[in-house]
């Protein structure tokens, strides 16, 4: 389907004219920022609350600094510490090991490992699908990784679900050990 520009002269006289017709040049965004948290010091968790139920999906973008080696980055929804099913694939760079696993009745949704050094960030993008739909479980998928400037790194892919029907209105991100370091950044977006 092609999209062409509309102008006032191409709209039939006598019909209402709207100013929100695409002008052919202005980019439209499917993402609305719902908030960002940039840590100025260490923190044991970051929470986004009062998430409006007016979007189709959510996207969480994480830029994590942490000095705790092999610390997992984890997420819970609405404060629930159970009811998560997930599976993941992990691959270490430079000929390192690969692993995969999965499980039900987990206490969190897994985003991956951090780099274990507050100099190198671990980054991830997590899509939370149909988060406001109250007739089905909430599915999520995440891709992330880190690189230690060519001296090591990893990639992880995670998917799973939260086996609850409630709309997600709170997201809490936390490491399984220690704290997030200063300058870690977490951003939440509503997807139209």
Keywords:
single chain; 192 residues; mainly beta; Jelly Rolls; 8-stranded antiparallel beta sheet; globular
Quick summary:
With 192 residues, this protein is mostly beta strands. It has strands at residues 31-38, 46-48, 57-66, 72-77, 84-92, 98-106, 109-113, 117-129, 138-147, 153-162, 171-175, 185-191. It has a single domain (29-191), classed as Jelly Rolls.
Could you explain the architecture of this structure?
The protein contains no helices and twelve strands. The protein has 192 residues and is mainly β. It has a single domain, classed as Jelly Rolls (Sandwich). An eight-stranded antiparallel sheet has the order 1-12-3-8-9-10-5-6, with no helix packed on it. It has a four-stranded antiparallel sheet with strand order 2-11-4-7, with no helix packed on it. A hairpin with a 5-residue loop joins strand 5 and strand 6. It is globular and about 45 Å long. The N terminus is likely disordered.
Count of individual domains: 1
Mean pLDDT level = 84
Low-confidence stretches: 1-11
What percentage of amino acids are in beta strands? over 45%
CATH architectural name:
Sandwich
The N- and C-terminal alpha carbons lie at a distance of 20 Å
DSSP summary: helix tally: 0
Main sheet specs:
8 strands, antiparallel
What gyration radius follows from the Cα positions, in whole Å?
Answer: 20 Å
β-strand number = 12
Helix content: under 10%
Q: Give the overall shape.
A: globular
Give the class from helix and strand content and strand pairing: mainly beta
CATH class: Mainly Beta
Spatial order of strands in the largest sheet: 1-12-3-8-9-10-5-6
At the fold tier of CATH, the topology name is Jelly Rolls
């Amino acid at each position: 389907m092609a999209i062409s520009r509309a102008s006032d002269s191409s709209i039939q006289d006598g019909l209402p004219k709207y100013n929100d017709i695409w002008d052919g040049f202005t980019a439209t965004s499917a993402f609305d920022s719902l908030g960002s948290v940039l840590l100025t010091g260490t923190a044991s968790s970051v929470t986004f609350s009062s998430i409006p139920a007016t979007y189709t999906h959510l996207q969480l973008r994480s830029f994590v600094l942490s000095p705790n080696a092999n610390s997992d980055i984890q997420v819970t929804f609405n404060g629930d510490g159970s009811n998560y099913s997930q599976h993941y694939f992990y691959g270490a760079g430079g000929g390192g090991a690969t692993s995969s696993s999965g499980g039900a009745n987990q206490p969190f949704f897994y985003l991956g490992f951090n780099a274990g050094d507050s100099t190198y960030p671990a980054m991830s993008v997590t899509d939370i699908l149909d988060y406001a739909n109250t007739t089905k479980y909430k599915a999520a998928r995440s891709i992330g990784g880190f690189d230690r400037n060519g001296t090591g790194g990893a990639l992880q892919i995670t998917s799973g679900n939260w086996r609850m029907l409630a709309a997600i209105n709170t997201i809490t991100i936390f490491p399984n050990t220690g704290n997030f370091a200063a300058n870690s950044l977490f951003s939440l977006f509503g997807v139209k």
